[in-house]
Q: What sequence folds into this?
């Protein structure tokens, strides 16, 4: 079944570390909403079955309950929606009870909050508009208005963060009514306000990041949040069905500036230009790859997941030579504690996830 990704390219203010496409243009919210609906309508009559919708950003929570409702309603008329998981990314600084209750009534089933830390000094460094008490109250209110699936993002490697302060953040955040955690390492991205030597020297170095990551995996497991992907952890029933589609190589349709799609065996994206998105009748798409290498994709995406890959399937897709190379290299990585091979299934360990790029490179060539 297909997933729908809707990129909401607006933020109240740009965070200094972020390279996602977003602009501060509240006067465009309504035109943007109409453009999203037009693009959804372009799929009408194609009999597309869909079981997830994901509002990502940017900051989808700047949209009103009525605007979100209109988009979901349009999707319901144009796609065959089958008990959909509908996720909306939210910032603690742009939510209130009425809005969250409206999203719930509109059909949103899951909220994902960009909390990042429970330490106000760290939140200040990240340029976030909220403090932890606001984040806590936003998550508690979401649960009170009926959300049973709530996720929080946590950032690792922030300037001044220690193993202890990270531990305390995770203790505070997992004490909230949440069933999912995404833990990301802070990276200095090109072209962001943090892209300078002063900042590179101020944030955690690679060794510290590795320690933070391994501590986080263990601490979250002790709280019942089991790792299912490099950066994602869930309680029973809390995994993101939409994000799993990316890693399982399933189809998704992306709508909105900078949104990527994998549909009809093609990978393509919409340009990062909200004005063009609004003025075009239907978004124009740029094709990335019209015939992606299936074996490569299977290995690269599958090894992000703790469920791992079936070596036999990789061999079926990529040939005998690839299968033999994977078996040979995996045996070496297993000795180093970086992966486990059991009954033909290859899984990376948490230490393996930290070196996943080079491991995948070795397995594939
Ligand atoms: S981190 Fe989130 S809120 Fe901050 S600029 Fe990026 S998309 Fe917007």
A:
């Amino acid at each position: 079944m297909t997933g729908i990704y809707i990129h909401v390219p607006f933020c109240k203010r740009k965070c200094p570390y972020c390279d996602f496409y977003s602009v501060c243009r509240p006067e465009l919210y309504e035109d943007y909403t109409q453009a999203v609906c037009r693009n959804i309508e372009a799929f009408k009559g194609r009999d597309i079955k869909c079981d997830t919708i994901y509002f990502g950003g940017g900051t989808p929570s700047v949209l009103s309950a009525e605007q979100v409702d209109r988009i979901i309603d349009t999707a319901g008329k144009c796609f065959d929606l089958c008990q959909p998981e509908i996720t909306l990314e939210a910032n603690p600084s742009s939510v209130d009870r009425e809005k969250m209750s409206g999203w719930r009534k509109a059909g949103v089933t899951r909220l994902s909050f960009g909390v990042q830390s429970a330490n106000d000094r760290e939140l200040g460094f990240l340029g976030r508009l909220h403090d932890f008490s606001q984040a806590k109250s936003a998550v508690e209110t979401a649960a009170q208005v009926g959300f049973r699936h709530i996720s929080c993002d946590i950032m690792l490697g922030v300037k001044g963060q220690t193993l202890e302060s990270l531990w305390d953040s995770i203790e505070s955040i997992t004490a909230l009514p949440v069933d999912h955690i995404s833990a990301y390492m802070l990276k200095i991205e090109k072209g962001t306000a943090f892209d300078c030597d002063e900042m590179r020297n101020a944030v955690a170095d690679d060794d510290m990041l590795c320690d933070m990551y391994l501590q986080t995996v263990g601490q979250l497991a002790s709280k019942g949040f089991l790792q299912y992907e490099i950066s994602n952890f869930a309680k029973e029933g809390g995994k993101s069905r939409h994000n799993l589609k990316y890693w399982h190589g399933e189809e998704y349709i992306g709508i909105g500036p900078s949104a990527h799609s994998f549909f009809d065996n093609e990978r393509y994206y919409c340009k990062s230009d909200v004005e063009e998105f609004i003025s075009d009748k239907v978004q124009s798409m740029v094709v990335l790859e019209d015939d992606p290498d299936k074996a490569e994709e299977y290995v690269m995406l599958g090894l992000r997941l703790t469920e791992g890959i079936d070596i036999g399937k990789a061999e079926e897709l990529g040939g005998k030579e690839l299968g033999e190379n994977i078996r040979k290299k995996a045996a070496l990585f297993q000795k180093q504690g970086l992966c486990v091979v059991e009954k033909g299934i290859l899984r990376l360990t948490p230490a393996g996830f930290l070196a996943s790029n080079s491991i995948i490179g070795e397995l594939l060539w």
